[in-house]
Amino acid sequence: MKILTTFTLAAAATLALTACHGTGKKKPPQENSSTSGTLVMACDASFENIMEQEIEVFEFCYPHASVLPYYIDNRSAIDSLMNGSARVAVTATPLTPEQEKVLRGKKHFAKSKRIAVDAIAVIVNPDNDVENLSVSELADILTGKVTRWDEIAPSRLGNIQVVFDGNGSSVVTYAVDSIMHGEKFAPNVYSANSMKGVFDAVRERRNAVGLVGVSWISSDLRTADMSVEEKTRTLERDDSTATDFVSDIKVMPVRRDNSLHAVKPYQAYIFDGTYPLFRSIWMINTGATGSLANGFFAFVTSFQGQKLIQTTGVLPGTVHRRMVEVN
C-alpha cells in the first residue's frame, strides 16, 4: 500500500498563471519591470532542484525576464543579499533583526516569506540491512558515539562512514544545531563537496550514510523531465504531489525517540510532524516595487509557484492536507 498525499493550496497569490501562454523563446532584455529584465538570485545549493523548476516556468511565461541563479552555501547567499550583489535570496534561515536593520539603512527593505518546508533525508546504500533509525541514534552516529552499523541493529555491515555535501552547507548546519545540539562531528564524517558526491558515495559504499534535502531524492519529480509547456499545464491540474523516491539508493525511515513508528520523508509526514527532520525554506526579496525581483517573488509565493514546489517532494509553505491510499 503506498501513501499518496494530495495538498490543496490555501489561496492563489497575486501573480496568476492561468493566463500564461509563453512562447518559450527568449527575447532581447528589456527595461526592468516585474516581468522583464535581469535578476541575480543567490540560493542555498541544497534548494537548486526546487528553484530550477520555478525559474524555467517563470521565464517561459515571461520571455523578457532572465533570472540568473547562483547556487552557494547558505551564509554566502545571505551575504550576497546584504552586500547588494543579489536582490533575491533563497535560504534555510530568515534574516535576523540586525540584518534587516542594516538593509534598511541602505534603503533596501526586505520582504521575507517561508515558501516551503524541506525534510532532511537520510540515505544509505540499497544493501544496508538496518531497517530504521531514531533521531538519537542518528546523533550518535554523527558524533561518533556509534561507529558500527551492528551497534544499531543486527547487521552484516561494519564501520559507518558519514558523508555531507559541503563543510559550510545548510545541511551541515542543520545537523549540528538540530540533531547533534552543538556537539562536534566524529572523525568518520567527511565532505563530498556536492550533493552529487553524496549520492556517489552512498551508491558505491555499502557502509556509507548521507544527509540530503528531500527534493534530491524525489523520483516523482515529474516536471524535471517535462517540457516547459507540460510543466505549465500541470499547474492547472490537482494532482501535483510527489509520491515516491529514487530507487538506486535506500531512503532510511526515521523515528522520534519517543516513537516506535519510523517513516520516510513523504509530504504528509512532513506536514503533520511525524517525520522529525525538517526545516523551513525562506525567500527574501530586497527589490524595489515593480522590479523583476518583486515579480519573481510574487510568482514563487503564488498558487502556481507553490504547486511547482509541491512536485519536488518538499512541502509548500501554506497547505491543507487530504490523504488517500493508493493500492
Overall 3D geometry? Answer: elongated
State the separation between the terminal residues, measured CA to CA: 5 Å
Query: How much of the polypeptide forms β-strand, as a percent range?
Result: 15-25%
State the secondary-structure class. Answer: alpha/beta
CATH-derived topology of the largest domain: D-Maltodextrin-Binding Protein, domain 2
Q: Spans with pLDDT under 50 lasting ≥5 residues?
A: 1-19, 220-224, 237-242, 322-327
The CATH homology group name of the largest domain: Periplasmic binding protein-like II
Per CATH, the class of the largest domain reads Alpha Beta
**Tally of domains:** 2
Mean pLDDT over the full residue set: 84
Main sheet makeup: 10 strands, mixed
Q: How many helix segments?
A: 10
C-alpha Rg (nearest Å): 20 Å
